[in-house]
């Protein structure tokens, strides 16, 4: 929870000065503030119980991880205060050691959770961070439709499920732009992307568009520059959709999107089929590279990524006209992403690049859609004067 | 020829008083095609007109034409796609030209060459506007060669109904909404507003009455943030460019940005139509009346004084 800011001492320090500091006082403190306590640009994390050591575990580049909590003398309350700049949003967990036993869990004093394919995490939101209001279901926004389809793929040698979003008021007489989303199921499940699309289209920020949500089967193999995956997207999925739906038939009308490895898949697919797609939407793309040698520190899964990105950086080309890209400043990928912006621009592409005080997670990628999608697919906002 | 332009009506309703000030008895034609499929939800609007409203249902008619006259619909959709493509190129060129003006303005000029460079950069923006206007005109001409609104029996039938409704009306009220659709409807039914009928309009409705409809939203996330000339309106107020919701949609504290907008349309008065605005134009060539807030050529916001001058 947020507490009063200003020149007052931190709440946890005021607690430390209490005499007597008994269990009842700690009870009252914990129930009043919960965890974390956000005071200006400081966040104090709390954990209560018997333990030998307690840490805050997070993946914020620049802060120590693990972040050791200290026992408030004479109590069973552990606490640590860290800097948290305005607008930040951090996902974290608590790790506890009792003897040889380590346990990791979400913060029991914090009800705010974020979810991902890897499980849930607690969320610490700094002063100035707000969940965008276009994330929640808006009863006034007409819902689009999600259709479950299966595309038989020779390239992937399987039946590939695809969820196809048709915007509200879908009209076969009109041609729509197409957005293909890697990790499609996760974008729907963890980034509320259907609700986001419904709302942004309803608000006139985004033009009505068709969206193909494509889930991977083995993303670590299929996403880093994998020829069969690219062939599936460009030579099978796009024609399959074009045969069935009224789509714009120009590159400007087609966009590839993905986060993390999905960003690599988007770029590598566009590079394999230049002129097929007009734009990319890359969120925290895993564009890891080395300038000398091959020690990239990302482990074997990153080997094909680094090979691919190094090759691209050696001879950059222009597979699309426009790239909307974003990265969280607290994730390790911030440096590769920042480094790629001038490379893309020098290759002749228009790049809209934004950063957020957030990490490598689905809520960050969700929150950025309100800026990136209107840039790529401008809605009729400029036409409407109520 | 009386025309009254109002500010947005959502929170500050002035349409009732404006219509009563016309001192006319009888039905009032309502146009709210800009509301699209909400056009039929017009009870509140009719109530504001003392129950005298007669909806011309232009959006409903437009959809009916597109459904029933397939040849026309095909031509209209082809035109729409061409216009979209044209807008794409216009946006690219316009934004680059506008960015250039800013870059020229920001550059130092120890030898005093900036003024000439700036004049030329602004002229380049105006050239892009002019190019778009001429290409659009060409598109309309081309479309007219393939589809004619005068040969469609469906359109003719609707036109007859609209004329009959208008015949019995003593005034016209045009609400806001989607200005593109509003213009499309006016054009489709070749709607000409009789000079003798007073018109009260706001927001997109006000824009549609002018000769040049300019789209703007300085705070958009879109790539093209520069105001765009969109199309010709009905031309009832040819000397005005209407800018509804100006406080919300324009950087009014950025005189350089506003000055460029003013210089792009030098023979027009750029009139801000914010909440509570009520502006009476007795004739087509009347300038904005006293009290109107306009963008001066230096980009400042000025209020028209009683002598018709801009008071600053």
From TrEMBL, chain A:
It holds the Pfam family Esterase. InterPro entries: AB_hydrolase_fold, Esterase-like, Ig-like_fold, Ig_E-set, Mycobacterial_A85_antigen. This is Esterase. It comes from the Bacteria. GO terms for biological process: carbohydrate metabolic process.
From TrEMBL, chain B:
The keyword Protease applies. GO terms for biological process: proteolysis. Gene3D superfamilies: 3.40.50.880. The keyword Protease applies. It comes from the Bacteria. Keywords: Hydrolase, Protease, Serine protease. InterPro entries: Class_I_gatase-like (IPR029062), Peptidase_S51 (IPR005320). GO terms for molecular function: serine-type peptidase activity. SUPFAM superfamilies: Class I glutamine amidotransferase-like. Belongs to the peptidase S51 family. This is Peptidase. It comes from Intrasporangium chromatireducens Q5-1.
């Amino acid at each position: 929870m947020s507490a009063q800011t200003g020149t007052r001492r931190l709440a946890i320090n005021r607690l430390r000065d209490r005499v007597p500091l008994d269990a009842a006082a700690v009870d009252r403190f914990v129930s009043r503030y919960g965890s974390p306590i956000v005071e200006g640009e400081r966040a104090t994390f709390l954990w209560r119980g018997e333990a030998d050591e307690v840490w805050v575990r997070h993946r914020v580049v620049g802060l120590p991880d693990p972040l050791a909590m200290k026992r408030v003398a004479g109590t069973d309350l552990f606490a640590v205060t860290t800097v948290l700049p305005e607008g930040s949003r951090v996902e974290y967990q608590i790790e506890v050691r009792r003897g040889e036993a380590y346990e990791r869990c979400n913060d029991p004093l914090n009800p705010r959770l974020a979810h991902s394919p890897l499980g849930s995490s607690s969320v610490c939101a700094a002063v100035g961070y707000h969940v965008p209001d276009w994330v929640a279901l808006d009863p006034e926004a007409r819902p689009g439709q999600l259709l479950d389809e299966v595309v038989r793929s020779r390239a992937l040698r399987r039946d590939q499920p695809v969820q196809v979003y048709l915007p509200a008021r879908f009209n076969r007489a009109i041609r729509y732009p197409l957005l293909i989303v890697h990790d499609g199921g996760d974008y729907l499940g963890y980034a509320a992307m259907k609700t986001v699309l419904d709302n942004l289209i309803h608000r006139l920020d985004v033009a009505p568009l068709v969206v193909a949500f494509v889930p991977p089967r083995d993303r670590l193999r299929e996403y880093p520059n994998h020829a069969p995956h690219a062939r599936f997207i460009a030579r099978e999925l796009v024609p399959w959709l074009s045969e069935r739906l009224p789509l714009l038939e120009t590159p400007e009308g087609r966009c590839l999107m993905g986060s993390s490895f999905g960003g690599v898949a988007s770029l590598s697919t566009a590079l394999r089929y230049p002129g097929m797609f007009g734009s990319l939407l890359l969120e925290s793309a895993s564009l890891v590279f080395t300038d000398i040698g091959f020690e990239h520190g990302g482990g074997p899964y990153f080997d094909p990524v680094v090979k691919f990105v190094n090759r691209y950086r050696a001879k950059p080309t222009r597979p699309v006209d426009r790239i909307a890209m974003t990265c969280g400043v607290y994730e390790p990928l911030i440096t590769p992403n920042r480094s790629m912006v001038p490379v893309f621009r020098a290759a002749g592409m228009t790049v809209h690049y934004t950063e957020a005080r957030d990490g490598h997670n689905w809520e960050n990628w969700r929150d950025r859609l309100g800026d990136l999608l209107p840039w790529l697919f401008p809605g009729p906002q400029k036409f409407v004067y109520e | 020829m009386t025309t009254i332009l109002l500010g947005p009506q959502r929170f500050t309703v002035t349409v009732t008083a404006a219509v009563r000030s016309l001192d006319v008895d009888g039905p009032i034609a309502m146009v709210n095609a800009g509301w699209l499929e909400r056009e039929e939800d017009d009870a509140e609007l009719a109530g504001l007109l003392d129950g005298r409203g007669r909806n011309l249902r232009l959006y409903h008619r437009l959809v009916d034409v597109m459904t029933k006259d397939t040849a026309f619909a095909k031509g209209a959709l082809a035109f729409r796609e061409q216009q979209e493509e044209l807008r794409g190129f216009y946006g690219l060129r316009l934004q680059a030209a506008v960015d250039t003006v800013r870059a020229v303005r920001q550059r130092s000029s120890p030898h005093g060459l900036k003024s000439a460079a700036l004049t030329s950069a602004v002229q380049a923006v105006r050239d892009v506007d002019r190019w778009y206007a001429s290409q659009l005109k060409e598109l309309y001409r081309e479309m007219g060669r393939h589809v004619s609104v005068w040969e469609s029996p469906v359109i003719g039938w609707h036109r007859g109904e609209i004329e009959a409704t208008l015949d019995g009306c003593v005034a016209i009220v045009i609400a806001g909404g989607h200005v593109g659709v509003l213009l499309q409807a006016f054009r489709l039914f070749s709607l000409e507003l009789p000079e003798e009928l007073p018109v009260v309009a706001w927001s997109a409705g006000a824009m549609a009455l002018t000769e040049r409809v300019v789209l703007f939203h300085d705070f958009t996330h879109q790539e093209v943030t520069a105001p765009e000339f969109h199309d010709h309106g009905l031309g009832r107020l040819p000397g005005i460019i209407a800018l509804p919701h100006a406080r919300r949609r324009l950087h009014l504290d950025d005189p350089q940005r506003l000055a460029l907008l003013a210089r792009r349309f030098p023979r027009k008065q750029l009139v801000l139509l914010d909440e509570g605005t009520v502006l009476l134009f007795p004739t087509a060539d009347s300038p904005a009346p006293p009290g109107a807030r306009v963008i001066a050529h230096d980009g400042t916001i000025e209020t028209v004084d009683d002598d018709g001058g801009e008071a600053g």
